[in-house]
Fold:
Amino acid sequence: MAWWSRCAQIIVLASAAMVATEVPAAEQVHHGLQAAIYQWYGKLDTIMNASHHLLSIGQPRHVGQGDQAHVEVNVQLESQERRLGQSHYPGHYEEQVLHISGTLERVLHSQSVLYSLDDFDSKYRPSRASNLIKALVFSWTHGLDTYDESALQRHLLVNSTFVAAELRVQKLIDYVPYLRSLNYLKNHRNLNKLNIETLNIEQDTYRVTYEYQWWAVNQQGESELAQMAVEMQVQIIAGRAMISLYKETYLAPITDAGAEVRC
Amino acid sequence: MRIRSWVAVIAGLLLSANLWAAMPILKGVGGDFSLQSSLGRQVNLTDFRGKVVLMFFGYTNCADICPTTMAHMSQLMDRLQPADRSRVQVLFVSIDSDNDTATHLNQYLAYFDPSFIGLVDSQDKIDAVAAKYHAEYVKLADSTVTTVYKKLTLAGEATDQQGYLFSHTAKIYVMDISGRVRGYFYMGTPHAEMQSQIEQLLQE
Structure:
């Protein structure tokens, strides 16, 4: 009888494993935190006439309690300071700890924990626009994740064009209520394929495209999945990337490409 | 050791029987449609509420992927319990409006399974349905066709036209009992996996 009892335990464990597989294993990124970090370095690029290329962003750690509570994140980056009259510069490899507000939306200060000067010179690669645009993309996505209409509105230029994938949504003001009406128990967006193309260097305008996989659990406990494509036109104004055009479309969900045989 | 082995076998069987996680609802893909059918009448997707629908875009002159996929689905139907089988509907949407007719589709599909329903309509209507389902297809110009396929003459019509080919998606769209797209099968999807997924969808 004992081994039947063991079988029963395994059945329970197997059932639990099946339920667990309903949730995508992809590590979830906090888009607000990413936005804060990229905005921090984009701002530094602007102020210091330097470049900060982020190599990796670690997992946030909650430290301190009460008024002292904040979040720390380790980042690895390659930076360069631009000097007049030179085309090539030595870069710096750095590891920094960023101290971030408890709401994960603002970097308070940074602390260098490792600093290493490259033993070679390299051509200057600007990062200001890409950092500010990544901050915009993550902040926008965070606004969608949290149904924060006013935050989304702050990213749009006056007279901007907004086209949602859902035909029933005509304007941004309709978008957040639509998202809320879905009554998802959980939802998350995984961004990929970000591409930034300069449209006009003098006007600081860019075409930005990316895709995201939008996963959600509805009120019935069912998983929903959408593959979305986004196209933006962006202008950098006073240290912030702003949207002049936003267009979102549904893509066919990604499936096993190897199985997709055509005749 | 013997008991442990049995436990491992039973656990393995249990896991393999339910190895596939529930199919998510795919947003932005699918939707209702109304097309002429091999039944001789207009058919709506809503006619199949309460059934799992397996839908494939193809054409009867296709020499490889369409017949093999239809055969794969025919074998799947044979595996299903009668009660489940009556709640699964296969739809074959013809992308060849110029040549496929309702009669032609009826004869073609009956070869695989008499319960399969063929859908054919004007190219505009087929294009609209294909767009809803992100089902890509394109007719290859005759000049690019290197192999001449002789058109089936199921309806008795003689044909001397040159062979032609469509490049088209090989997806089998899986729709749940509410008509929502839940995923895809392919000709290479194992029958056991298809059966398990269908049974899960029928239990919802």
About this structure: Chain B touches chain A at residues 3, 6-7, 10-11, 14-15, 18, 21-22, 24-29, 62-66, 134, 165-171, 183-184, 186-189 (CB under 8 Å). The helical segments of chain B are 2-17, 65-79, 82-85, 102-110, 123-132, 191-203.
